[in-house]
Hints:
The chain is an alpha/beta fold. It is 28% helix and 26% strand. It has helices at 47-59, 76-89, 121-129, 151-158, 179-189; strands at residues 6-14, 25-32, 37-41, 62-65, 107-113, 136-143, 163-164, 168-171, 190-192. Helix 1 (47-59) packs across helix 5 (179-189). Mean pLDDT is 90; it is low at 1-22. Bound molecules: flavin mononucleotide (FMN).
Amino acid sequence: MKKRTMAMMMAASFFGAAGCSAENAKIQKVETEPEKVLVAYYSWSGNTRFAAEQIQKLTGGTLFEIKPVQAYPADYSACVDQAKQECRDEFKPELATKVDNLAKYDVIFVGTPNWWSTMAPPVRSFLSSYDFSGKTVIPFVTHGGGGMAGCERDMRKICPKAAFGKGGAFSGRGVRNAEEALRKWVDEVVTVRK
Ligand SMILES: Cc1cc2nc3c(=O)[nH]c(=O)nc-3n(C[C@H](O)[C@H](O)[C@H](O)COP(=O)(O)O)c2cc1C
């Protein structure tokens, strides 16, 4: 029998926040297969990349780096200044990388550093570039102390037709020692039938 990816235990509540349609359902746990999992991330200094690589190993999914055409300044202060303006303007930079065929994925982990309490602009571009209807988006964030902040909320606004799994937030500084916490969270949000 053909295995089918299915959403399990759809929560009865829907999100009524501004910009979120009733379709923006909250999923408690999804069941899927490795071929249907995409782990997309943007990372400036490597922390979110580390988390993404762990999630890829745990799920057997496909790793995808979201890269802007114009890289952000290597200098921290210059990067922070540029990011401040861009996050405020909800700027969407042009991307240098493209997912081959998003249609073949059902579960998309989307990783970002917390930048000014929201997602990094390349992640905004990524989420705006594809049709996420019927997909489950699972946000993950690394941060410098601010946690998830507005990252998940703002992702939901961009993808009103996706269902959202429970987001994961991990300290950037501690992420390399957070393998157990990452594993626990992945187990909570997805069952991957190999
Ligand atoms: C431009 C910029 C803005 C940031 N803004 C925040 C913030 O608002 N809140 C926070 O907790 N951390 C903030 N940080 C820290 C990063 O979220 C944290 O170091 C993260 O783990 C970096 O991930 P990366 O190594 O994948 O780029 C910021 C870092 C940068 C470079």
